[in-house]
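Translate structure to sequence.
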């Protein structure tokens, strides 16, 4: 790290309500020493200073993604990208799979991710027959963008042991044709049968993926992120290996999957908050339902055109309550994936019961994604002090499928940042990458404009200012990880993390925000990325 770094020459948004904008920031040995006018900051110098002239560019506290998959983002860089607008048809998917098959030894796995049937010309999922013709001698497995649905070809189904006789579990389904044969489309837990048939990444593989994924976050201005799911010892060991080698690319807050890790952590006396400023144990995590795009999010009312489909429970409501109480009593913050309104209601019921049984001040339990809300649910979130973690880029990519599956009125309060703010609810922005791209400017633009990638609006009354959108990517995620006294604000004594954008985002047209860029990322007082 630099002994001293002086940043000046442009607007600096501090996220400190007592001094929202500053002229200069001085950093020393990984901490902020002074923030304010140039004269005030220069008075705190102690010896030689390296200077960074913003030249009119905007600087903010280092960005923080409240819910992302850094490991998966790294692994995704070796897989076939299938997202729109680059990929618009199943025919294109077939071409991409065939090209990868030609470059892959026979029998090797071909994996892709990011397609959305709502954006494909055919308006359907690919199926095993589509993929068999493109890669007859390779197992093929393609994730839908939400990572709650995937499609496998016949070879992959065979390796996973999935046949017409394979029953649907309670928390997943196998799509079948008229004769009962699997189409290749697998929903929720059934995808695990395929992933289990592949070789498990080693600790070294995971560490490499963390480096690659972390670099992508650094390029996008992030200095911190919440890793949204540690379930294997190898994953935690990979994080610790990079921490030990002083090679972690991001300050990391780890969500620990309850069913895989809670008993062991509790036996050791480990709770949320164990660790340091670079690597810290975060919430105990649970999945309650699926996704809107996959029609597996658990809803109160049926999906459009499917009178019997209200989505899936990943576990029963009684099991949600049992796990919440266990993790709450063990001293953990809890973060539960809940997208449908029925799932959110069940999670709030469990949080309320756990708190009544064992009152804990400032538990800061979270709802990850927290998509389908109404005024009653918002009232309960406010009353319980629960933190929503909205996917602020989801609407940019997924608005069409949301409307297709639910209709407009049911998504009135989806990622309702203005309503959250008006109710005093702290909502922390997230990408959920690689479900959508890491790029925070897409999230910022969507929060400001409430427009999707086609330019269509959805409930623009929920739009917020650029400053508030930046706060949702800085101070709010710090608060959601109990770190607001360490980061998320530029103030003396806090961590020397800072993001420099290529322009002053406040002077950019709202529809052009996503075309801007991050120029510099500073972590611990040193430049870790420069465009």
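Result:
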């Amino acid at each position: 790290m630099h002994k001293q770094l002086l940043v000046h020459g442009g607007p600096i948004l501090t996220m400190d309500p007592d001094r929202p904008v500053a002229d200069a920031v001085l950093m020393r040995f990984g901490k902020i020493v002074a923030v304010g006018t140039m004269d005030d900051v220069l008075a705190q110098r102690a010896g030689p200073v390296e200077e960074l002239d913003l030249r009119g560019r905007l600087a903010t506290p280092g960005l923080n993604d409240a819910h992302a998959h850094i490991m998966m983002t790294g692994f995704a860089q070796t897989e076939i990208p299938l997202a729109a607008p680059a990929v618009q048809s199943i025919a294109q998917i077939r071409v991409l799979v065939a090209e990868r098959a030609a470059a892959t030894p026979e029998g090797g796995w071909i994996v892709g991710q990011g397609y959305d049937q709502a954006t494909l010309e055919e308006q359907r999922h690919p199926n095993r027959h589509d993929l068999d013709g493109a890669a007859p001698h390779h197992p093929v497995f393609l994730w839908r963008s939400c990572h709650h649905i995937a499609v496998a070809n016949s070879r992959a189904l065979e390796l996973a042991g999935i046949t017409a006789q394979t029953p649907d579990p309670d928390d997943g389904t196998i799509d079948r044709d008229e004769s009962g044969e699997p189409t290749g489309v697998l929903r929720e837990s059934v995808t695990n049968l395929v992933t289990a048939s592949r070789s498990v990444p080693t600790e070294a593989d995971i560490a490499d993926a963390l480096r690659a994924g972390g670099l992508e976050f650094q390029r996008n201005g992030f200095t911190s992120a919440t890793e949204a799911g540690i379930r294997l010892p190898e994953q935690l060991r990979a994080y610790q290996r990079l921490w030990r080698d002083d090679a972690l690319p991001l300050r990391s807050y780890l969500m620990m999957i309850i069913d895989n890790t809670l008993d062991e952590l509790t036996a050791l006396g480990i709770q949320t908050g164990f660790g340091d400023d670079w690597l810290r144990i975060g919430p105990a995590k649970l999945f309650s339902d699926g996704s809107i795009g996959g029609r597996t999010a658990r809803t109160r009312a049926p999906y459009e055109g499917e009178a019997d489909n209200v989505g899936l429970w990943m576990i029963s409501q009684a099991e949600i309550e049992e796990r919440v109480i266990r993790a709450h009593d063990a001293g953990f913050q809890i973060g539960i994936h809940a997208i449908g309104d029925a799932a959110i209601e069940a999670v709030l019921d469990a949080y309320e019961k756990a708190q009544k049984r064992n009152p804990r001040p400032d538990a800061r339990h979270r709802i990850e994604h927290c998509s389908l809300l109404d005024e009653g649910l918002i009232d309960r979130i406010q009353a319980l002090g629960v933190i929503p973690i909205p996917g602020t880029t989801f609407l940019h990519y997924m608005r069409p499928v949301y409307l297709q599956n639910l209709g407009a009125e049911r998504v009135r309060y989806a990622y309702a940042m203005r309503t959250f703010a008006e109710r005093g609810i702290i909502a922390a922005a997230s990408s959920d990458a690689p479900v959508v791209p890491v790029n925070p400017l897409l999230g910022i633009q969507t929060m400001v404009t409430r427009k999707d990638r086609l330019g269509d609006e959805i409930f623009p009354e929920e739009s917020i200012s650029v400053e508030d959108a930046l706060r949702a990517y800085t101070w709010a995620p710090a608060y959601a990880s109990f770190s607001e006294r360490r980061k998320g604000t530029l103030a003396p004594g806090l961590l020397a993390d800072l993001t420099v954008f290529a322009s002053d985002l406040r002077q950019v047209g709202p529809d052009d925000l996503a075309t801007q860029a991050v120029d510099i990322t500073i972590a611990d007082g040193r430049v870790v990325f420069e465009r």
